[in-house]
Design brief:
Oligomer: heterotrimer
Function (chain C): Part of a membrane-bound complex that couples electron transfer with translocation of ions across the membrane.
GO biological process, one term (chain C): electron transport chain
Radius of gyration of chain A: 19 Å
EC number (chain C): 7.-.-.-
Chains: A mainly alpha (about 220), B mainly alpha (about 60), C mainly alpha (about 190)
Number of strands of chain A: 2
Number of helices of chain A: 8
Structural class of chain C: mainly alpha
Helix content of chain A: 55-70%
Family (chain C): Belongs to the NqrDE/RnfAE family.
Subunit structure (chain C): The complex is composed of six subunits: RnfA, RnfB, RnfC, RnfD, RnfE and RnfG.
Shape of chain C: globular
Distance between the termini of chain C: 14 Å
Structural class of chain A: mainly alpha
Largest sheet of chain A: 2 strands, antiparallel
């Protein structure tokens, strides 16, 4: 039960993107299309789960004094591996994501989870935590990408990143009625701000309700 | 392969030494309680978060 | 010379690191409540990016490339940046307490600032010459500081505004950033 709670925390209660404002750089930059969002999400999940597992396995060996440098080296190694895999097997995704794969190293979510969870908990719990947080990140990223792609280009499309074969491509908003602003930086900021405000409104309402019940 | 290891060990050792020396260097006078008060994210375990600011009274944290 | 100047302008205004590349969002939102802290953070970022870029550029072309160690650049760069930040902090702690008072608290925040790593990698992937690298490593953080200072003055005023409850804090700051991004997009045809 407790494990389940830890796992689901990443989705709403402690959502790393909208709740804690972690990893904003990549979220805003990558959320232009569904393809990029899901590709980036999977890369982050892979790095996060592996780094959580390794750090939790080594947590008794790493001296407390120099733990941050050790974490940075472990994470940088994992990111290099993931980057090479993407470069080899999904070259179109690699060129679309550009420098942002490398920048997973400095994504606060990874170091933050290592610091806050993995160095205090067992291997299995840490892996679960990484998976939950990573899925929370991917879900938020996909959500923003969905809105931006739909409003900005009027169509939703997704293609297989390995073969570039188009899986679906649906024109929802008729051509000529789309809002290209949403594909630009301004659109990214606005979409993110509105979604964050919506989550904060939901949390405020919940807090108010709890207050009333307490009275 | 050997060069790679050598480069890595040299850099890691350099970083370790600098990290240690930096920790040993005392903070200058009058700078003990400096806080960046960064509120970029809501991770309260980060020591930059204003939650950790002990110089203010405890009632002021609204 | 003119080429360098237009490169500088492009990096500061057109391809602004915060408003068009979305890097350094954490300090952009976090340390922009007051003008004074924005200036301190901006100055620290300029110093660290400039210094770290020179080191990473040198190590890449003197050590990594001749030995075919291209694949190690991420690990090497992040170590160099982290070491450089530690070194800078130590030196100003020892020799300049007043500088430490102004910038010191922002230095630890910078190691995980993605802008630093991005500039270091960008200098390599864009195949800049040494002079181009120097211009780029000054221009990019200068753009960061410009936007951070403008943003902090807007936020100081925003403090007295009546903002809807759910927009308080980061959401309204992001709306302001959106408007700024729109304004900066007008620079697109400049160079």
């Amino acid at each position: 039960m407790n494990r389940m709670k830890n796992f689901t925390a990443g989705f709403l209660r402690e959502n790393p993107v909208f709740g804690l404002y972690l990893g904003l750089c990549s979220v805003l930059a990558i959320s232009t299309t569904l393809n990029n969002a899901i590709g980036m999400g999977v890369a982050v999940i892979a790095v996060l789960v592996m780094s959580n597992v390794i750090i939790s396995a080594l947590r008794k060996i790493i001296p407390d004094e120099i733990r941050i440098p050790v974490y940075i080296v472990i994470i940088a190694t994992l990111v290099t591996i993931v980057e090479m895999l993407i470069h080899a097997y999904a070259p179109s995704l690699y060129s679309a994501l550009g420098a942002f794969i490398n920048l997973i190293v400095v994504n606060c979510i990874i170091l933050g989870r290592a610091e806050a969870f993995a160095n205090k908990n067992g291997i299995f719990d840490s892996a679960l935590d990484g998976l939950g947080m990573g899925l929370g990140y991917t879900a938020s990223l996909t959500c923003i990408a969905l809105i931006r792609q739909l409003l900005g280009t009027g169509a939703l499309s997704f293609s297989n990143p390995f073969t570039n074969e188009i899986i679906f491509n649906i024109q929802i908003i008729p051509v000529g009625y789309e809002i290209p602003l949403f594909t630009t930086a301004t659109g990214a900021f606005i979409t993110f701000a509105l979604l964050a405000a919506a989550l904060s409104a939901y949390n405020n309402k919940k807090a108010e309700k709890a207050k009333k019940e307490a009275k | 392969m050997l060069v790679a290891l050598l480069v890595f060990v040299a850099l890691a050792a350099g970083y370790g030494v600098l990290y240690y020396m930096n920790h040993k260097t005392p903070v200058p006078e009058g700078c003990e309680n400096l806080k960046a008060e960064c509120e970029g994210c809501k991770v309260t375990s980060c020591e930059m978060h204003p939650v950790h600011d002990t110089s203010k009274g405890e009632n002021e944290n609204d | 010379m003119a080429e360098m100047f237009s490169m500088f302008l492009a990096a500061v205004l057109i391809n602004n690191i915060v408003l068009s590349k979305f890097l350094g969002m954490c300090p952009f939102l976090g340390v922009s409540k007051k003008l004074s802290s924005a200036i301190g953070m901006g100055a620290a970022v300029i110093f660290v990016i400039f210094g770290a870029s020179i080191f990473t550029y040198g190590i890449y072309y003197l050590v990594l490339e001749p030995n075919g160690l291209d694949y190690m650049k991420l690990i090497v760069f992040i170590l160099v940046i982290a070491a450089f930040v530690q070194f800078t902090e130590m030196v100003i702690k020892k020799y300049s307490p007043s500088l430490y008072k102004a910038l010191g608290i922002y230095l630890p925040l910078i190691t995980t600032n993605c802008a630093v790593l991005f500039v270091a990698l960008d200098n390599i992937t864009s195949k800049f010459t040494f002079t181009e690298m120097l211009v780029n490593s000054i221009a990019v953080p200068a753009g960061f500081m410009l936007v951070l200072v403008i943003f902090s003055t807007i936020r100081e005023r925003l403090d007295t505004a009546d903002v809807p409850n759910s927009f308080k804090g980061n959401p309204i700051a992001l709306i302001v950033a959106a408007v700024m991004a729109l304004a900066f997009s007008a620079f697109a045809g400049l160079v």
